[in-house]
Amino acid sequence: MSGERVADIWGPRAPFPSGASWPRRVDQYLVDGVAEADVQEWVRGACLLCSNGCGLEVAVRDGRMVGVRGRAEDRVNHGRLGPKGLYGWQGQQYDRLTTPLIREGGRLVETDWETAMAAVVGRSRSLLETKGPLSHAFYTSGQLMLEEYYTLCVIGKAGIGTPHMDGNTRLCTATAASAFQESFGSDGQPGSYTDVDSCDALFLFGHNVAETQTVLWTRMLDRLDAGDPPRLVCVDPRRTKVAERATVHLPVRNGTNLAVMNALVHELIARGWVNEGYVRTHTVGFDELDRLTRDATPEWAAEICGVPARDIRAAAEIFGTGERVVSTCSMGFYQSHQATAASCQVNNLHLLRGMLGRPGAGILQMNGQPSAENNREAGCGPALPGFRNWDNPDHVRELAELWNVDPLVIPHWSAPTDANAILRFAEQGSIGFLWIAGTNPAVSQTDLARIRRVLSGDQCFVVVSDGYRTETTELADVVLPAALWAEKTGTFTNVDRTVHLQEKAVEPPGQARGDQAIWTDYARRMGFADKDGHPLPAWDTSEQAFEAWKAASAGRPCDYSGLTYQKLHDVGGVQWPCTSEAPNGTERLFTDGVFNTAVEKCETYGHHLATGAPVGETAYRARGVDGRAILKTTAYDHPYEEPDATYPMRLTTGRTVYHWHTRTKTKRSRQLNEAAPAMWVEISAPDAQRLGIAEGDIVRVASRRGSIEAPARISDVREGVIFAPWHYGDPESAANELTLNGWDPVSKQPELKVAAVSVTLIRPGDGPAPAPTTTASAPVRPFADTGRE
Amino acid sequence: MHLVTYLHFLHATEETLSTSYRTVSDGHVADGDVHWTTARFARQCTAHAQALAPVLERCGPADEPAPDRLHAQGMTSTRDGPAGLLRDLLDLYQLTNLVDITWTLVRQAASAIRDRDLIHLTQQYGEETKDQLDWLRMRMKAAAPQTLIVAT
C-alpha cells in the first residue's frame, strides 16, 4: 500500500449484519524500500490524527519510524487506519525544531535549553512577584498526553494558582463537555462505538464523519451496505459523503441548528413518540421542554432553516419509530452561537425515547482531537481534574488533599478561564506570561489579524512549545522544541472513552524534549512546592504521572484506577471507567438510568442555555434532580452575524479528509499534501453563475474582519453558503481572517460556522481549484464539462 | 391611579435600557461576549417596550401627576479599559435592576386589579430581565479578580 488510501479513503467494504462483530482488516503502510522483514520492532500505540484513536503499531528500523499497521484486536478500528493515520506520521521526519529559539533584536535565534529556560523562569518569577498568579496563563492542546495535562494542571492550579488554563479543545470539544454536564450532570460519553454495530437508525448532526473520522465512517458504511442497514439522517449544509448516503438529508442554513432541533423535539412530543415511563422516572424538566418547543413546528423551522417541513417530519419519524438509535454530534453544532442548546437537544431526543444505555441506543457527542478528552478530564481546560465541580468546596478539598496544598491556593472562585478570555487578558496585558503548547492559534483562532497583534505585542511574554516552526512560534519570545507522537510514552483517550498507551518508538530529534519533561523542568527551577516543602508536581516520569492521575480519578466518573501501563500494552484500548469492579472497562454509561446529577457528585449546577448564567447551588438543590437527567433547551435566536446587502452570503469553515488542523504534520507528508496542496473556497453552482465565477477562478471573500483570495471550487454546497477549509495559514488566504469574535454562552466555544461575507471575482484561474474531488469538495460537474483541464 | 404612570415609566425605562445595552455593545466590541450579549439584550428590551405599547394605548393618559424626577438616565457613552468595562456593567446592572423591580411592582398591581393579560405579560418579560441580571452578575464576578488585581 504506497498511497492507495488517498484515493480509496475508506477502503474495501466488509458489510456485516446488525449485532455482529465488525470484520477485521489490517491496514499497513511501510515506506518505499522497506519490507516487513526489514522491520526490527513493532511498537504499540494508537493514532493521534483524529479523535477516533485507532490502535496501531509503529514499525521501527535503525532508530527511525518506517511505517505503521493497525491492530486487528483493537476495539476501536479492528485493524483499519485512515489516510492520515497511514501517511501523516511521515511529517514528523521533516523540518523539526531541534533547538530552543529566543528572540533577540526582534529575531528568533537558536539558543540552548539553559538560556531559554532561564529567560522563561526569569520572566515568570518576576511577574509572579510583582503581579501574582493572575498574570500567568497556559493555552494547550487536544493532542498532548494525559500525563502531560495532569502534570501541567498541578503546576498551574497548585504550584502557581492561576485559573487561566485552557486548551484549543475550547475550539473543538468544549460543547460536548458542556452538553453532557447540562444534561447528565457531568462530562463523559454515554455511548460506545459498538452501538453503531447494532443500531437501526443513525443520526449525524453537523458531523462530516466521512472526512473527520474516516475509520468510524468505514464502520458505518459496512453497516449501511449490509442487508439490514440502519436508516441514516444527516444534518449538514454541505452535500457530504454522509449526506449522499442519507435516507433524509437536512441541509439547514448554517446557524439554524437549534431551530431544527427544537422542531424535532416538538415532533416527538406532538406525535407521542415519548417513553413516558422513562421520562417520568429518569428525567426532570419535561414540562419546560414541552413549553419551549410547543410553537417550534416543522413549518416554523422549515422557514428558518431553509429545508422542507416534510423532511423534518420524516427525520422525526425515523427517530420516533427507531428501536435502536445512535446519534453523533460534532463541529457543525459545536462551533456555533447556540451550540450547547442544540447539542443538549440531541441528548433530549434520546432521553425522551429512553434511547441510551443499551446496545445500539447511544449518544456520541464527538471530540475533534485525539486527546481532547484528557484535557477535559485532567484539569487543563474547562474543569477541575476528575470532572470535579469548582463550585463544590468538598471537591476542591479533595484536590487540596491529593496535592497537599491549602484549598485557597486552588482557584475556585469562578469557572476556569476560557481561551477567549485568556487571549483578551493577554491583549490587555493583564496576562503578561502566556505559555502555548502544541497548538497554532495564529491559524486556528477566529479573527487572525487580532490574534497576531495579541501574540506579537510587547504587553505579553509568549512561550511556545512545538515540534515545528509555525505561524505562532514566529510571534513568540521563546520557542521550545517538543517531542512528538511515538517519541515519548503516555496515554490518551478517544471519543468513546477508550484509553490507549502510546509507547516510545524513537528518540526525539536534536534537543527536543517531551512536554512533561519541559514543564517539570520549569516547575523545579521555579521551586513549586506543597505545604511541607516537597516539590510539586511530586513525580518525574510519565508512569508516575499516570499513577498520580489514577488516584485523582478514583471514585469520579472518569475512574482510571483499574488501568496500568502493562494492561494497556497487553490489551490495547480499554474504556473508562476501569476499576477493580470493572477491570475490563465499561462499555456504556447510565445503563441503569441513574445520572451524575446528585448534588455531591455533579460537575456543575448547570447554566441558563440562553445566557450562560449559572443556575447556582441553591436553585439546583431545590430542584431535587438527584440522579435524574435534565431536559433543557432555549428559544432559537439568529446567529450573531446575518447576511445583509454588503455581506450577502454565509461563510462556514471546516476540514478536509487529508489534513489535520493547521497542517504542521500533514503538509509534510507527501501523499497527504499532494492530495490537498493549497487553499480553496467552495461556492454553489447558482451563486457561481450569478457572480460570473467558473471553476478555479480566483475570488475574493471579504467579511467585516478581513478578506482573502483563493481559487473557487463550484461544489454542492448549499446556495448562499461559502465553505472555506481552515487548514491553510497564509494571511492572504486563511479562512479565519474572516471569522468573528463571538462564542456560545455556555461552552464558550467560538462561532466558526457563520460569518457574513461578500464574494467577488478577481481574475480567471489557470485550472480547477486544488480541492480534493473525492469528498464533499467534489466539483458539481466533471472538469471535462467545465471547459478546463 | 398611578399604575398608568408606572406603565409609562416601565416602557420608557425599557427603552432607556435598550439604548444603554446598545451603547455598551458598540463600545466594547473587543470583548466578544459583552458585545454580542448586550446587543441581544438591547433587542429584548425593545421587544419588551413594544409589548407594553398596546397596554399603554388601552390605558390612555395617566390621570394623576407623575412623581418628580420619574425617569432614570441611560448610558450615552462607554468607559475605556477593563476597569471601565466593569463600571459600565455596573451601570447596566443598576438600570436592569430598576426594570426588574418595576416589572414586579406592575405585576403586584396587575394582580390586585385582576388583569390577566397584564399578569401574563409581566411573567413573560420579567423572566428575560432576570436572565439579564444573572448574566451581568456572572460576567462581573468573572471579571472582578483580573480587573481589580492585575489590570492596568
Automatic annotation (TrEMBL), chain A:
Give the keywords, sorted.
4Fe-4S, Iron, Iron-sulfur, Metal-binding
Which Pfam family, any one, appears in the UniProt record?
A: Molybdopterin
- Organism field: Streptomyces diacarni
Q: What is the lineage of its organism?
A: Bacteria, Bacillati, Actinomycetota, Actinomycetes, Kitasatosporales
Domain annotation 4Fe-4S Mo/W bis-MGD-type: ranges: 40-96
PANTHER family to which the protein is assigned, alphabetical: NADH-QUINONE OXIDOREDUCTASE SUBUNIT G (PTHR43105:SF10), RESPIRATORY NITRATE REDUCTASE (PTHR43105)
Instruction: State what protein this is by name.
Output: Nitrate reductase
Q: Name one GO molecular function term.
A: metal ion binding
Q: Does Metal-binding appear among the keywords?
A: yes
Q: InterPro entries annotated for this entry? A: Asp_de-COase-like_dom_sf (IPR009010), MoPterin_dinucl-bd_dom (IPR006657), Mopterin_OxRdtase (IPR006656), Mopterin_OxRdtase_4Fe-4S_dom (IPR006963), Mopterin_OxRdtase_prok_CS (IPR006655), Prok_molybdopt-oxidoreductase (IPR050123)
Q: Where is this region: Disordered?
A: 765-789
Domain of life, per lineage: Bacteria
Spell out the PROSITE patterns in the cross-references: 4FE4S_MOW_BIS_MGD, MOLYBDOPTERIN_PROK_3
From TrEMBL, chain B:
Origin: domain of life:
Bacteria
> Protein name, please?
Ferritin-like domain-containing protein
The organism of origin for this protein: Streptomyces diacarni
